[in-house]
Write a structure and sequence with these properties.
Number of strands: 2
Shape: globular
Number of domains: 1
Radius of gyration: 18 Å
Structural class: mainly alpha
Distance between the termini: 19 Å
Mean pLDDT: 88
Number of helices: 6
Strand content: under 5%
Strand order of the largest sheet: 1-2
Order of helices and strands: HEHHEHHH
Length: 189
């Protein structure tokens, strides 16, 4: 067993748990659909977090060439999947009520916690790129802009639905765009 095969097991378990949380949450949405008041920016966040889990699992394959792993590198790399798992848990109500769940109200109650988790996630991605991958800080412009946008929204706490809808759509387009641009890197050889 290679060092990569050894460490990818725990990372895959954590990512799998996050995916399980998202899929279980979506099943809850479907189960109680008639009593759920839908808020589409929330649904976009659900799709984004699911996609981020799959994307992280897929790009972990890049680490297969790392021949030696130390505990600090491993802990640093596993932090991102842990934060994704936390993000997935914040997405859904703990209990679905048969009487009804208003996803807009739930979103506005939870988004500050969600945004803080997203900020830590982005900061971790930037630090990982700089420290472990050796990418220069000045090449992290998209992540830095994203960090700035989410931090600004966290600090001003907008209550307008259109702001949150615009952010969700922007993030979705950014994810689709990054997957399209990185399509060559997303091929396992």
């Amino acid at each position: 067993m290679s060092p990569f095969e050894y460490v990818i097991v725990l990372i895959s378990i954590i990512l799998g748990l996050g995916i399980t949380v998202v899929l279980t949450g979506v099943a809850g949405l479907i189960r109680y659909w008639k009593s759920v008041s839908v808020y589409y920016p929330y649904l976009i966040w659900v799709a984004l977090v699911f996609t981020m889990h799959i994307h992280e699992w897929w790009i972990m394959y890049e680490w297969r060439t790392m021949e030696s792993w130390n505990i600090l590198t491993f802990l640093f790399i596993i932090l991102y999947p842990i934060l994704l798992f936390i993000l997935a848990n914040l997405l859904f109500p703990k209990r679905w009520r048969k009487k009804g769940v208003n996803l807009r109200n739930f979103y506005f109650r939870m988004y500050p916690k969600f945004f803080v988790s997203a900020l830590v996630l982005i900061a971790t991605a930037i630090a990982s790129d700089v420290v472990i991958s050796g990418r220069p800080f000045n090449e992290q412009s998209v992540k830095l802009v994203l960090f700035g946008i989410i931090l600004t929204l966290y600090l001003i706490k907008p209550k307008h639905t259109w702001v949150h809808a615009a952010l969700a759509i922007f993030l979705l387009l950014l994810m689709i765009g990054s997957l399209a641009v990185l399509s060559d890197e997303l091929v396992i050889r």
